[in-house]
């Protein structure tokens, strides 16, 4: 089982400058790989390409040797840095959490998502509480890979370590591969078995 990007080239709006030029990388099932690089190097763009959120690139993204299925729940789930931009502001959080079907209520408690949060609107939660919902939403049985794009950057150290412990433990139990996009090389060193630098 493997998620691969092969010879990806991408530029926004036919701009002269390529954001990504001939990028290839792979993440095996159950592996945690760091993608580290300075601001503006195209890390988030690559994350979106992996998760099927950007079209029109050159090259291929393959999951177990096949194109990633479209029009169904995406087995490659992207979690962003800014949870407030990742949820529908017109949905109560219980609906957001259940968007892709049933969820594990034990995992909800483990994630520190209180039952009363489910009946609130996104603007009635703190950033850390909302990020727990976004992380949990990505941990569905159909998920095979997670693209974690700066998911803990705006969290305090305790919340950051709690969330990573849960995600890493869940990934281990379910053989999920994770691409950890971060500026924080120290974080990548602690949680990743391999680090790729995007120059
Ligand atoms: N929607 C867009 N339209 C045009 N250009 C964009 C768009 N999104 C990103 N870019 C540009 O593409 C380049 C790469 O951006 P990207 O967000 O992928 O980098 P990054 O490495 O993730 O940066 P950071 O670490 O700051 O998040 C940047 O120069 C950015 O300005």
UniProtKB/TrEMBL annotation:
<dbReference type="InterPro" id="IPR003439">
    <property type="entry name" value="ABC_transporter-like_ATP-bd"/>
</dbReference>
<keyword id="KW-0067">ATP-binding</keyword>
<comment type="similarity">
    <text>Belongs to the ABC transporter superfamily.</text>
</comment>
<protein>
    <submittedName>
        <fullName>ABC transporter ATP-binding protein</fullName>
    </submittedName>
</protein>
<dbReference type="GO" id="GO:0005524">
    <property type="term" value="F:ATP binding"/>
</dbReference>
<dbReference type="InterPro" id="IPR003593">
    <property type="entry name" value="AAA+_ATPase"/>
</dbReference>
<feature type="domain" description="ABC transporter">
    <location>
        <begin position="3"/>
        <end position="199"/>
    </location>
</feature>
<dbReference type="Pfam" id="PF00005">
    <property type="entry name" value="ABC_tran"/>
</dbReference>
<dbReference type="InterPro" id="IPR050319">
    <property type="entry name" value="ABC_transp_ATP-bind"/>
</dbReference>
<keyword id="KW-0813">Transport</keyword>
<keyword id="KW-0547">Nucleotide-binding</keyword>
<dbReference type="InterPro" id="IPR027417">
    <property type="entry name" value="P-loop_NTPase"/>
</dbReference>
């Amino acid at each position: 089982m493997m998620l691969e990007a092969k010879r990806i080239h991408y530029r926004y709006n036919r701009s002269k400058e390529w954001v990504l030029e001939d990028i290839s990388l792979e993440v095996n099932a159950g592996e945690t790989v760091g993608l580290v690089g300075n601001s503006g190097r195209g890390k988030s763009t690559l994350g979106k390409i992996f998760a099927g959120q950007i079209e029109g690139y050159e090259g291929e993204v393959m999951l177990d040797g096949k194109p990633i299925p479209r029009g169904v729940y995406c087995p490659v789930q992207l979690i962003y840095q800014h949870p407030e931009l990742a949820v529908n502001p017109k949905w109560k959080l219980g609906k957001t959490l259940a968007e892709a079907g049933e969820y594990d209520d034990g995992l909800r408690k483990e994630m520190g998502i209180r039952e009363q949060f489910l009946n609130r609107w996104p603007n009635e939660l703190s950033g850390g509480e909302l990020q727990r919902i976004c992380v949990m939403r990505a941990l569905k049985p159909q998920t095979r890979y997670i693209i974690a794009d700066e998911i803990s950057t705006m969290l305090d150290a305790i919340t950051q370590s709690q969330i990573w412990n849960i995600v890493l433990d869940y990934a281990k139990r379910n053989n999920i591969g994770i691409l950890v996009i971060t500026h924080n090389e120290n974080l990548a060193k602690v949680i990743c078995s391999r680090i790729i630098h995007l120059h």
